[in-house]
Design a protein that fits this description.
Elements lengths: L4 E5 H4 L5 H11 L3 E3 L6 H6 L3 E6 L14 H18 L3 E4 L9 H22 L2 E5 L15 H11 L4 E6 H7 L3 H8 L3 E6 L16 H9 L6 E4 L7 H11 L4
Parallel strand pairs: 1-2, 1-8, 2-3, 3-4, 4-5, 5-6, 6-7, 7-8
Helix pairs in contact: 2-10, 4-5, 5-6, 8-9
């Protein structure tokens, strides 16, 4: 069983405290890095002993890879971000299917795979993983197409690159399909990154929500997964206490 590497999403915590304080406490707790952090803070993050773990690969979440007319733009954006990722040692870029907007599941899958196939070799050469995010279309992102694990896995299979994988967001997939641990075990070869949050509410990983993260984290640690678990929840209580509690709950080894 491997030691769990953890990161935190900057947007969840960076507005709640001073950046120096957040960096110092994250490093003290044991976090390896931060995600989706404003670029002007990257030098400060690195100087504080943390890594930049993820960055958005392209614009936008709702208008994404499932539309072929977006592919030229998205390819250019991803290739620019790949160069940035190499420079800063960022292991993963987050990419999005986009909303359905009337596109069938089959056509959306084919289009998304075609768009990612255009940049797969560049990602391989850069040593950076493009992680297609699984999001719920029931509560937070209505009409988003990559809202089921099986659909995302088929995209990855169609591309056929070890550098195109899924961002398995546990909160979002609990809303859409549940059966979290079994799904992770069955599909871990196609998962490059995890995100967490309590459900319902997308808040702390505590007794008010239905997911039990110690068991989920132990299940992940028992697989071949070598990436990061990213804490991406909006705390309603003390942010530093929530960060430390979440880290401890997910620190399976």
């Amino acid at each position: 069983m491997s030691q769990t590497k953890q990161s935190l999403a900057w947007w969840c915590f960076g507005s709640k405290m001073d950046s120096d304080q957040l960096i110092a406490h994250a490093a003290r707790i044991g976090y390896a890095g931060v995600e989706m952090c404003p670029q002007d803070l990257w030098p400060k993050v690195v100087d504080g002993g943390l890594k930049i773990i993820t960055e958005g690969g392209h614009q936008s979440l709702s208008d994404g890879l499932n539309k072929r007319q977006n592919h030229d733009r998205i390819q250019a954006e991803i290739e620019q971000k790949l160069a940035l990722a190499v420079k800063w040692g960022i292991p993963a870029l987050i990419v999005f299917s986009g909303n359905r907007d009337g596109i069938s599941e089959e056509a959306g899958l084919d289009n998304t795979a075609a768009g990612l196939s255009r940049v797969a070799k560049s990602a391989e050469d850069a040593g950076v993983t493009l992680v297609l995010e699984l999001l719920n279309s029931k509560v937070d992102h209505h009409d988003y197409q990559c809202d089921r694990t099986a659909w995302g896995v088929e995209v990855c299979k169609a591309v056929g690159s070890s550098r195109v994988q899924l961002l398995y967001d546990i909160y979002h997939m609990q809303i859409m399909e549940g059966d979290i641990i079994r799904t992770i075990r069955d599909n871990v070869d196609y998962i490059g990154h995890f995100h967490t949050a309590g459900n319902p509410g997308r808040h702390e990983l505590d007794e008010t929500q239905e997911l039990y993260y110690p068991a989920i984290s132990r299940a992940i640690a028992a697989t071949s997964f070598q990436g990061y678990i990213g804490q991406e929840f909006s705390p309603v209580g003390d942010s530093l206490e929530a960060l430390e509690s979440a880290y401890n709950q997910c620190n399976a080894s």
